[in-house]
Amino acid sequence: MTNVDHFIALNQQFDAAFNSKNPQAIAALYAEQAIVMPAPAGQVVKGRQAVADFFAGLIQAGVIEHALTMNEAVVSETLVTQTGHWAAAMMAEDGVKQQFGGNVQVVFQKQPDGRWLAVTHIWN
Asked: What stretches pass through the bilayer (predicted)?
């Protein structure tokens, strides 16, 4: 059976890539045909390069201090569904840091090469 700690480590890799402003490293954590559904009711993003472009836009917009926290995981041999919280911040024009966050769900699928990649990611 799959160790949940592996997915906590994947969350940490995501946060490290985001916070170091590396959208290609973020996208590498997603399957080729992954789907990202941003909040609130944002445009659905499909495909690894589109995922990279989407997160590059958030980074360019000034989103900082991204953090994923897993609360629960449902684990099978080939799929893991994690639920939890996300948090981030932005600096307002007046120099005041605005913090925000919400709920998150990520579904990982085991790839033929044994890697686990995100196939869907949704947050609110």
From this structure: none
